[in-house]
Amino acid sequence: MSGLPDVGVNTNYQKTARKSYPTSIAAIFRQLGYRTRFFYGGYLSWQKVGDFSRSQGFDEIYGGGHIGSWASSNEWGVDDEYLFEFVLKSVDDDRPSFNMIMTTSNHPPYDIDVRAKGFKLRKIPAGLESALADDINLIELGHYWYADRCIKNFALGVEKKLQRPLVTITGDHAWRKKIIKQPDLYEKTAVPLIFYGPDVLDGITLPLEVTGSHLDIDSTLVELAAPRGFPYHALGKNLFNPEQRALGFGGSVVIGPEFIVDVEGGGKVDPLPGHELPREHPDVKQINRLYNDLNGMAWWRIVRGPKL
């Protein structure tokens, strides 16, 4: 939301967060003339997310209390399907809009009746038992299925309602619970990133060796929407630009085209799944310096403000 990395200081509680950071994506889209809205399935008081989203450039903020389907909810918020139904009713083509949606169903206490929703898996598929963690259970896996299904149905619904929608899907953090017995560094830290918009993305392809992080989503969306030459602030890069540096900077790791570096864990380099380590070993010192520079700039802006 802020366009800044998490540097361990609870950005949303800092004095500097009372105004939009120059990198805040909603504030940038507001400059472009977009209507900006934030939808959250839970309570807007959680982590002051309602106040923070407004200060970071969202004109309209909606929480679970606005949705009205609390009969199907838990302490975290309304079920995803009702959140997405509310969003789908709210968006239209009257004016271009940027909408951020934060769901809650894929989260403990995992009490949605996924069987009633259509989840049919009754046992772990053959061949997977040996890899899965001992305490995994089907109902929790069913919540993954439910969350995915709700997102799919929403994307298809938006595609029918709007002329040129673009849906971007990611996770706000990596796994909540270990699913396999021996996860590698990539499996411990990676999040998905999906762009879906057949008309918007027509003729656009990802570079062959693209890698990135949450920081790169903002630049990618802005450069898809903005006129050429539009100036904006960002710490990330446009993932569709083949000339950008093929590194992604996460909370404790840096990812490259074939490798991932555990920056906070001593600089250990692991290959990505399906790859071998490149013959030319990554310059870990240089990667560590870039990582520290990026986080140092963000820390200063969040804690000290805009003046050096």
Q: How does this model look, in words?
A:
The two termini are 24 Å apart. The radius of gyration is 20 Å and the shape is globular. It has one domain: Alkaline Phosphatase, subunit A, CATH 3.40.720. The strands form 4 sheets. A 4-stranded antiparallel β-sheet has the order 8-9-10-11. A 3-stranded parallel β-sheet has the order 2-1-5, sandwiched between helices. Strands 3-4 form a two-stranded antiparallel sheet. It is built from 9 helices and 11 strands. Helix 4 packs parallel to helix 6. The model has no long low-confidence stretch (mean pLDDT 93). With 308 residues, it is α+β, with helices and mostly antiparallel strands. 30% of the residues lie in helices and 13% in strands.
